[in-house]
């Protein structure tokens, strides 16, 4: 027996072992030449050229700590969206903000509610904070306000709602989100995760700024990872009541937003033309992909994001389609972990990638018909 065998050792709190580690979408296809990564909802247009230049310039001061409050970036965000800078907190991606909110508002006897096919990070954040996850069923892969409210009880402290939702692409109209906010007890925090807000062009959609402004228990989170194309640099923010910002600022790391991230965010916000081009590309190709793929008899969920949920005739067929596409360098996202084993999520890619996906799915369906 070695020295360590059978010896006592430090153990994490029991809740840690209830967490299934987050597994990102695939990014490689062994043995395949050119790869088209359509698994992580990354923009095919990439970041603004101005943002790239800002990151290069920021490299000249890497020895210095960042400005700890992200003051200049908060002011730019506030100016862009008509918000109050003192009600904004920045972080290393909106994921960090979600974790900070769970840490600040959940304890061992508390519950956090999220929807059936909601973002996996919610469950992780709730468990990491020592809370209990509570899942509200969805209706037609869409959040259902009545089902959420039915799961809210005396131990509920936080409700997470992705709007639009990842991985389904569905969304709740603003009137329904308002109904949810109105019905929640004042001590329950409603977190509106609007990571894909820029892609949602529906007239009845709202990201949540007005709800935050008019209530003491609503927070909106946003990210620079999607429309801004800055996923690698990790930058996000929230708009919240000042007392919520105070709680987050007390527990966040002192320098949680890097100088390079802040510089890139400032430059990206200023490049409205690049954002508009990204939205226009997504609108065009999301609709085209939806029509082309649906014509093969594959169910496509209407989407308010930069991705589509494709439903096959069962889990086995979804696995076969995934393998078929991967062998051709087209990497989609399997979403069995979200309770959707018969589905794949497809990011809207470049024109080349989009056309290749449609052609490959046509081949897959033809092969399936022969079999």
Task: Describe it.
The protein is 39% helix and 15% strand. With 371 residues, it is of the alpha/beta class. The chain folds into 2 domains: 122 residues, Aspartate Aminotransferase, domain 1; 222 residues, Aspartate Aminotransferase, domain 2, CATH 3.40.640. β3, α4 and β4 form a beta-alpha-beta unit. α3 packs across α8 and α5 packs parallel to α6. The radius of gyration is 21 Å and the shape is globular. The protein starts with 35 loop residues before the first strand and ends with a helix. 45% of the residues are buried. The mean pLDDT is 96. This is Histidinol-phosphate aminotransferase. Keywords: Amino-acid biosynthesis, Aminotransferase, Histidine biosynthesis, Pyridoxal phosphate, Transferase. Homodimer. It catalyses: L-histidinol phosphate + 2-oxoglutarate = 3-(imidazol-4-yl)-2-oxopropyl phosphate + L-glutamate.
Task: Pick out its properties.
371 residues; alpha/beta; Aspartate Aminotransferase, domain 1; Aspartate Aminotransferase, domain 2; 2 domains; seven-stranded mixed beta sheet; four-stranded antiparallel beta sheet; 12 helices; 15% strand; aminotransferase
């Amino acid at each position: 027996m070695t020295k360590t065998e059978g010896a006592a050792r430090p153990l994490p709190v029991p809740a840690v072992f209830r967490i299934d580690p987050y597994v990102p979408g695939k990014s490689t296809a062994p043995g395949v030449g050119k790869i088209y990564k359509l698994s992580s909802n990354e923009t095919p247009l990439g970041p603004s050229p101005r943002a790239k230049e800002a990151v290069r310039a920021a490299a000249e001061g890497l020895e210095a700590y960042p400005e700890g409050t992200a003051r200049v970036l908060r002011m730019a965000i506030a100016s862009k969206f008509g918000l109050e800078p003192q009600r904004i907190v920045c972080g290393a991606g909106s994921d960090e903000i979600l974790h900070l909110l769970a840490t600040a508002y959940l304890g061992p006897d508390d519950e956090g509610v999220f929807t059936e096919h909601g973002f996996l990070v919610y469950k992780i954040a709730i468990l990491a904070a020592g809370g209990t996850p509570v899942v509200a069923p969805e209706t037609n892969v869409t959040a259902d306000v009545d089902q959420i409210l039915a799961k809210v009880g005396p131990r509920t402290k936080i409700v997470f709602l992705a709007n639009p939702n990842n991985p389904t692409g569905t969304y709740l109209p603003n009137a329904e989100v308002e109904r949810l906010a109105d019905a929640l007890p004042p001590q329950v925090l409603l977190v509106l995760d609007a990571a894909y807000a820029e892609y949602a062009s529906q007239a009845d959609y709202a990201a949540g700024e007005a709800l935050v402004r008019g209530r003491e228990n609503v927070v909106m989170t946003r990210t620079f990872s999607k429309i801004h194309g800055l996923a690698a640099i990790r930058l996000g923010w929230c708009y919240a009541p000042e007392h919520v910002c105070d709680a987050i600022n007390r527990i966040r790391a002192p320098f949680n937003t890097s100088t390079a991230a802040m510089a890139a965010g400032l430059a990206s916000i200023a490049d409205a033309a690049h954002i508009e081009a990204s939205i226009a590309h997504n609108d065009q190709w999301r609709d085209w992909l939806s029509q082309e793929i649906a014509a093969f008899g594959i169910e496509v969920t209407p989407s308010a994001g930069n991705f589509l949920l494709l439903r096959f005739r069962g889990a086995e067929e979804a696995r076969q389609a995934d393998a078929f596409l991967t062998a051709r360098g087209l990497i989609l996202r399997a979403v069995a972990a979200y309770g959707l084993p018969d589905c794949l999520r497809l990011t809207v890619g470049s024109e080349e990638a989009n056309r290749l996906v449609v052609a490959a799915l046509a081949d897959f369906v033809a092969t399936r018909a022969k079999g």
